[in-house]
Amino acid sequence: MTIVQRMPRFLVAIVAVALALVLAIPLTGAKGGNSAVAKACQKGGWQQLASSDDPYTAFASQDACVSHGAQGGTVVALQVESRGEAQVYCEDALAGQYLAETDRVLFECDAPVNFLDAAWNTLFSMCDDASNEVQRLRSILRSWGELTTAVFICEKL
Q1: What's the CA dihedral at 29, 74, 93, 148 to 10 degrees?
Q2: Is the separation of the CB atoms in 78 and 50 below 8 Å?
Q3: Which superkingdom does the taxonomy of this entry point to (predicted)?
Q4: DSSP for 52-91?
Q5: Among 44, 57, 130, 144, who pairs with 106 as Cys (CB 3.0-4.6 Å)?
Q6: Which residues span the domain enclosing 52?
Q7: Mean pLDDT of the chain
């Protein structure tokens, strides 16, 4: 076999190696994390950013922000707290579900019953302060299998 006959095999081998390298470089670079998030977290940017899971709480540090992005988490602009006192108490302290005002209901909080007594007293005072109109707080117990929740409803009379 002459050099000319070996040349096509040699070129095919070189092209195959080159193609393998070209395809491998972007894949290894992709494992490095999210550089756009890392850049956004730098120079104090982390103080105005939050996880999409909790948009009301800023990252504790630049490292926490970068790490969240590197692990595939979504970073969003920090949201200003716009929840009222009753909503914050229902969602954060009671781990409940808050429903906003309607025509007759000022607020409703559906929460686990293990907070029943403390929740009643706190929500009663919030209901009393909710508006200048006459209102009342009532509660309803709901059970689904082993789960029991109390629904606190602050309504206009």
Answers
A1: -100
A2: yes
A3: Bacteria
A4: TT-TTSB-SSHHHHHHHHHTT--EEEPPPP---HHHHIII
A5: 130
A6: 44-81
A7: 75
